[in-house]
Amino acid sequence: MRIILLDIGNVLLDVDFMPFCRAVCRDVESGAKQLMERYCQGELKELHDTGRIASLDFLRMIAADPLTRDLTLQQLRLAWQDIFTPTPDCESAVGQLWQSYELWIMSDIDPLHFAFLLDRFPILRNMDRYLLSYEHGHLKRSPEAFRYALDLVGRDASELLLIDDRQVNIDSCCTVGIESILFQSWPETLASPLLAARQSPAIERGA
């Protein structure tokens, strides 16, 4: 059975951190961009995404920041989580792929976002497996993330295919022999010759 390693952010769900930044900062004009740089990209976010900073500690850092309005940790958590919308055609595309491939989510993500996504978006609940950076400790820009996937699956790299929107992740997986599709849109991805070449007979799954 062929396995697709499927990214979440900007593949299944569009991500926009700016609504969070605007919602929690004291001064939208001067503070939103600074909050974006401080917590939504860079070192602190990477530490959170790889499980090296606990989610509660991460939220407390944001709450203590002078740029941030006086909000409860629950208010901060909800603002942090609610930044996703489905990409066009994602549900029908996943349904099509699921007929012929085993689908593994492979995402650079933190526990707060993943818990929210499972609750909010049913499309994520029936995947065959989840490889999450906060659990195994590697971002996809590191080949170690893909070596972990290979060790877990116990198959040759030719059995796996990555669909991801970031070139750095595409380059990383190629170093361990896994082929990939750089995501632009679902119609373009589904038309990829790589998918056609790897397609398996329809999978019979139990109820």
Write out key terms for the chains shown.
7 strands, two-stranded antiparallel sheet, 207 residues, Rossmann fold, 12 helices, alpha/beta, 5-stranded parallel sheet, 14% strand
Concise synopsis of the structure shown:
With 207 residues, this protein is an alpha/beta fold. The protein is 47% helix and 14% strand. It has a five-stranded parallel β-sheet with strand order 5-4-1-6-7.
Secondary-structure map:
Elements: E1 3-6, E2 13-15, H1 18-24, H2 28-39, H3 43-49, H4 55-64, H5 73-81, E3 84-86, H6 90-98, E4 102-107, H7 111-120, E5 129-132, H8 133-136, H9 143-153, E6 160-164, H10 167-174, E7 179-182, H11 186-190, H12 193-198
Parallel strand pairs: 1-4, 1-6, 4-5, 6-7
Antiparallel strand pairs: 2-3
